[in-house]
Each structure stands twice: as C-alpha cells, then as structure tokens.
Request: fold
Amino acid sequence: MKFTISRDALLKPLNLVAGVVERRQTLPILANVLMVLDGEWLSLTGTDLEVELVGRLRLESASGDSGEITVPARKLVDICKSLPEGSDIEFSVEEGKVTVRSGRSRFTLSTLPARDFPNVEDSIGTHKVTLLQGQLRRLIDRTAFAMAQQDVRYYLNGMLWELQPKGLRVVATDGHRLAMCSLDSEFQVEETKQVILPRKGVLELARLLQDDGADVAIVIGNNHVRATTEDFTFTSKLVDGKFPDYERVLPRNPDKTVLGAREDLRQAFTRTAILSNEKYRGVRLTLAPGTMEIVANNPEQEEAEETVTVDYSGDGLEIGFNVSYLLDVLGVVDSEQVKLSLSDPNSSALLEEPENGDSLYVVMPMRL
Reply:
C-alpha cells in the first residue's frame, strides 16, 4: 500500500474521524484509524463501537498500490498538524510498519491488521429521509444543551428524534428542563418513528454538518441511525429505552405572559448569575406590571439585583429558576424578543420566540 496526498486535504477528514476515537480504550485497535486505499479513493474510519465515522478522499494521482491498514489515530493527527501547510505526505507500508514521509521528515508508525478492525453492523434501515445539513444542524444546535450528561436514566443521555410524515421533531431533556425543535417538511414515511440518539452520536454528527446548503441522507433502523453526506458516512447505535412523554411536560394554559428583549434579559441574567450560589445557581424573578426584577443571593450573604423593562400586565408573581437554564435558552434563540409564559411559582415556565418559532423550551422552577 503506497500513496501520496496533500497534508491540507488529509487533515480535515482525519481530524473529524479521529474525534470519534476514544483516548482510553479497552481494545488497542480502537485507538487506531482504518485506512483503506481502493484505486483513487482513500477512506478513513474511526469507531468506539457506539459511533463509527468513515471519511472519503479522492487522491489526485491514482498511482498508489491499493490495500488497507490501521494506524494510531492521535499520533497521525499530531504528525499531520506539525507538518508545514501545503506540503505533500507520502505513505508506504512495509513489514507491518507505516512510513510517513514529507520533505525532510520521516516517521515510522506501528500498525495493527485491518482484518481485526471492528465493523458496525450494516442493518437495513426502515425509514429514509433527505434534508439539508443546515436544517439538521439547526435542530441539534437548538436542543443539544438540554441533554443529560450522566443520568442513571440512560435514555435521557441522548436526544429523541421523532420522524413523522409531516416533519422531524427533536427533543432533549435532563429532567429539569426540556428543549424541542421541529422541522416542517413532507417526508415519505407512513407512520411516526421514535428513536433516541446517544449524546456522543449527537455531538459528533453536529461536527460533520458544515455545509448548510448540501444534503444529508438519514437512514433510521431499529438499532442504528446512519447519516451520509458527500464526504462522510456516520453511523451511531441507538439508545434502547423509552423516552418520556414530552407532550405531558408542556405547560397547559399558562395565564401570565411576559415579553422581553432577549439581549437585555441575557445580559441581566449573566450579571446576576455572578453572585448566585455556585452549586444551585438560583435566581428569583419578581414580576410586576412593566418590570421584571432579578435577584441572586449566595451563602456569603452577597446579593445582585437587576431590573429589566418587560411587556407584562398581569398580577405580581415571584418565582425561582436555575439561571444557567435560562441563559442556555437565551443563547440559542435568535429572535430579538423572547416570550415567557407562566402560571404560578410551582409550575414550569414555557420560553419561545414570539413570532412563529420552531422551538419550545420548558424550565422547571426552583424553591428559593
């Protein structure tokens, strides 16, 4: 196996594929990236047995000898990064070692046999849809922050994808807040399909979606989801579990509505958060006609107070929230105003964009 490729062409796909590879591995071969040369096409594969990513590159000159081998992912990335921009890299395999040459530099890397590299099973998908990368990235960007990180309820450590004939809806929740974003589109699917993508799969997929105007083809099976773009094929196992009924969490008929400037609220919450309790991050909102007062305290008896002008004409209300949850929402919506719907101090709040937004956010209150 022998080929030459430009450093700049190799680095981008290699970086993405190596991102899937875990640093601490139970199997030594999982620390490697699989390189397969077939004619003028070079493919790079990384996996951690949950998520697999295959990147494809076309070589400018197809003079290389075809073959396949696995090499240490991190070391190969570091070597490519350290070489000068615009340089060419020559790979050759002899006697179980890979030699990487560029200019006056030469590196010899150990390898493991390609036949030992694990392959994510190729199950046939039951649902297939195609959408724009920008559309899918928006769905992920607007909801991913609400995924749980290491919850014992393992089905919360991921994102629900609900594929319907009239569109795709994604939902994430950690039990204290919920984020939902919907894409309206006519899909050729007959019945609604719900699957849960694991957290790592969601974050790796988001890194791949870099060309907003290009298509991404999604295939959903019973155990896997596969996303294919022009340059990559991404496969992730699904979480085997039942996602909570998110419809029941959405507040029913909140009778108090607050309209405020998103940026003013974001800055006010950011400032008061400085003196909130570092562990619980609580802030108290006091609503009166025309104003919202935000107060934070901490165990050192320090206090921060902000008053923001809002569009509100209901009765007075005092309610506590985790300020990080409010800031997360204000960080992903992009409308100039944000709408906050409430009913009483013990009920969840609903945040959304006032004009035909595609996203909804629910935040549980705190007792302060």
